[in-house]
Structures are given as C-alpha cells and as structure tokens.
Design goal:
Two copies of one chain form a homodimer. In chain A, the strands form two sheets. A six-stranded antiparallel beta barrel of chain A has the order 2-3-8-7-4-9. In chain A, strands 5-6 form a two-stranded antiparallel ribbon. Chain A contains no helices and nine strands. Chain A has a single domain (13-24, 31-131), classed as Elongation Factor Tu (Ef-tu), domain 3. Chain A is an all-beta fold. At the A-B interface, strand 1, strand 4, strand 6, strand 7 and strand 9 of A face strand 1, strand 4, strand 6, strand 7 and strand 9 of B.
Chain lengths: 135, 135
Amino acid sequence: MSSEEPFVLRPIGHVESALVDPRAAPKQASEGAPQAWLVIDPAVGEGLRDLRAGDEVLVLTWLHRARRDVLAVHPRDDPAASEAGVFSTRSADRPNPIGIHRTQIVATDGLRILVSHLEAVDGTPIVDLKPVLGR
Amino acid sequence: MSSEEPFVLRPIGHVESALVDPRAAPKQASEGAPQAWLVIDPAVGEGLRDLRAGDEVLVLTWLHRARRDVLAVHPRDDPAASEAGVFSTRSADRPNPIGIHRTQIVATDGLRILVSHLEAVDGTPIVDLKPVLGR
C-alpha cells in the first residue's frame, strides 16, 4: 500500500551554468550541453568526500520551471510529433519533475564540482548525486 | 541561485512485490531481484499510454524507510568496508532518498505494469517512470 503523505525534497545545491534560457537548452546532454558547476551546500559537503575527477555520476535535479499537470506531450516540443504519454518521454513536464543527467566529473574544488556536460539551466536545484554503476 | 523552498513529491503509485524485508532485498537488481508489479494511480494513468512490453524503463522510487541525516555509510552495509560519502554510493540513506531502478516491462494490464526485476520492497512509493535512452 502506498503512503498518502507527500515527500519533501530538500535541495542539496544548484547548477551554475552559462545556459540561462530553457528554450535554448539542448534536450539531451549528448546534443552539445556545456560544462557546468555543481555548487553544493556546506550542510551536505561531507557526502562529497569520495568524488573524484573522472567519476561518472548521475545528477538528479528538480526541474523547477516544469508543469506538473501534464500527462501527454509532443516529444521534443515538436508540435508535428504525435502526443505521447509523459512516462514514455524525458519531458521536464510531468507529475514529479525530477531530471536525471549522466555526466562526468572534470574537477572538484571543495563544494564546487565541474562536470563535462549538463543540459540543466543556471539555477536549477540539485537534489542528489549518485555514481553510475557498471551496466 | 537555488530556491530555498522545499519541493513536494507526490507518489504516482507503489510497488507490489514478494520482497517485504529490506534487509533481504538485493542491493542491486542484477543480484537476483524478483519480478514486481508497478501499480499506478488512476489520476496519472494517461501518462502510461505509450508504455509497452519490452520497453526499458527507469523506475524512480521514494525510499521511505531511509535515513536522511546520513552523509557517510559503509558501502553495502558491510561494517568492514571503509565509510564512503553517500554521493559516491547507491545507499538508500541519503539526504533525498530517491531510488533509481533500471528494468524492463514484461507486460501491462491497465494501470498495472509487470517489470522483469526490481530491488524495491513491497509498498515502496513510485514517483516517476522514464524511458532508458540509447547511451
């Protein structure tokens, strides 16, 4: 049985990026997303201690500009494409707008982590970092 | 600048599984996790309409039994292992206990989706489903 209570995410940091316009952001990192800084809050800094340059990581973000009342979208914002159920797409618009971004650590500087590519816009809240597992 | 306001996740469904004891659950699905049903709420059922048997999906869960005040853990609950910062591990215990489970759809039955393997215990809330992208 699922619990009916809501679950509250607390940002652990935010994205610092030259990308500022969501409409100009690539849909996927493989389409030319720039390097970006992950700026992590001191309160959770201890959790970073084993991250190193070269590590592949999943960055989980909260896509704070997304619409949560949308259940079908035109994939890739292309009005000519047939609508698809949101759970078959990576659309930001969805009931719980969590973004998952696979990237690689280029460098670390205390609470700041430079990653090789990230399609999230400047200011996007970060909610988790996980290692990429080997499969 | 990151927003300071909290973000509220709303469960979109829950896991129905023979796994009931978190201590008995495999750490990763590749270690013998069983088939499981994803039971989705009618309110978001429209978002499922393009999911088909054979699709590879990421199931995002809220690991509701996790501790959120933990920043370093013994990997794989092995007390002999050195502690590691949580962001270098897939530990359920972390500031925002979101689980990411890669699996494959075996069958769909309306609002119920059978997946090939899932390491989450019975009753775990589901917060999102995303397609696996080709990379």
